[in-house]
Amino acid sequence: MSIRVTKRRICGILNLDKPQGMTSRAVVDCVARPLRGVKVGHAGTLDPLATGVLVVCVGAATRLIELVQRMPKTYRTVIRLGARSDTLDADGQIVEEASPRVPELAEVRAALATQVGTIDQLPPEYSALKVAGERAYDLARAGRPVVLQPRQVRIDRIELLRYEWPRLELEIDCGSGTYIRSIARDVGDALGCGGLIEVLIRTRIGSFAQSDGLDPLALRVESIPDLLRPALEAASDLPMLPIDANALAAVAQGRTLERGHLGDSAIPAGEVALVGPDGKLVAIAEGDPRNGRVLPRRVLLAD
């Protein structure tokens, strides 16, 4: 397959299993380098220490990154108690507690319970969030003040898998924007002994599981098109609205779909996935049943 054909037609999603020690940007480069000129982006940064699911969108599917970022996530992690770190993980400058208190199991369970639900969480100073137009981690590395505000995040479940001082092994289900490093810090502070992330594995984003993940270092220009998953998987949480060839032509021209384009199909309210006659995702649209129309917002017909 020539690069020219690839650039014109390639569109889809790669579920990659990020190795430890690689940045998320380096993983994206494993896709972008073979596909010169094709848009490539990832949905949710993993720190170099972390491993597991990194969803990479290719071609027009990059318009769906926000949808993937919104999907629920599952992590396995090992928190080391009795120590603190400037980065909140084992890659930072670690300060050991001189005589740390060893919490009882009941105390650990109580501290974990405070992290479940919709909570206000303070992001790590070493994060990609922007402060006055600069990345927080750039400010932190330069020794400049980093002022971040707590943000509301949703943590659905924290299961205690094992506690053997000083290590605490957890499985966590959470929503977008949650920092597992912040959980380690806050649990450690609640227990009065400090805590940092020693191991972090993202095992799932929505339907994308680590067990199905691909090795980014094994990707080649010839293999990538066959490894792509359908862009429709990024919209699995949305109602699907099938459209015919006439409606497809209207979307390609950037036109709003009126009720007459949709036959007997009911128009869902809010975000909806438009699916063409071939079963492929055409666009993410906004359904307006009151006025009998559908407004395409992110069209995938052209790259």
Characterize the structure shown:
This protein has 3 domains: 3-70 and 207-233, Pseudouridine synthase (2-Layer Sandwich); 73-205, Pseudouridine synthase; 238-299, PUA domain (Archaeosine Trna-guanine Transglycosylase, Chain: A, domain 4, Roll). The two termini are 18 Å apart. α4 packs across α6. With 303 residues, it is of the alpha+beta class. The protein has helices at residues 3-9, 24-32, 65-69, 105-113, 136-141, 180-191, 224-227, 245-252; strands at residues 11-18, 40-42, 51-59, 73-81, 83-85, 94-96, 117-121, 130-131, 134-135, 151-164, 167-174, 195-205, 208-209, 240-242, 257-258, 270-275, 281-288, 293-299. The strands form 4 sheets. Strands 1, 2, 3, 4, 7, 10, 11, 12 and 13 form a 9-stranded mixed beta sheet that branches. 20% of the residues lie in helices and 35% in strands.
Short structural description:
The protein is of the alpha+beta class and 303 residues long. Helix content is 20%, strand content 35%.
Distance between the termini: 18 Å
CATH level-3 fold name of the largest domain: Pseudouridine synthase
Strand content: 25-35%
Query: The biggest beta sheet, please?
Result: 9 strands, mixed
Our count of domains comes out at 3
The percent range for helix content is: 10-25%
- Rg (C-alpha, Å): 22 Å
H/I helix tally = 8
Quantity of strands, as a count: 18
User: Which overall shape is indicated by the principal axes computed on the Cα atoms?
Assistant: elongated
What is the residue-averaged pLDDT? 93
The CATH class of the largest domain turns out to be: Alpha Beta
Based on secondary structure, the structural category is alpha+beta
CATH architecture descriptor text of the largest domain: 2-Layer Sandwich
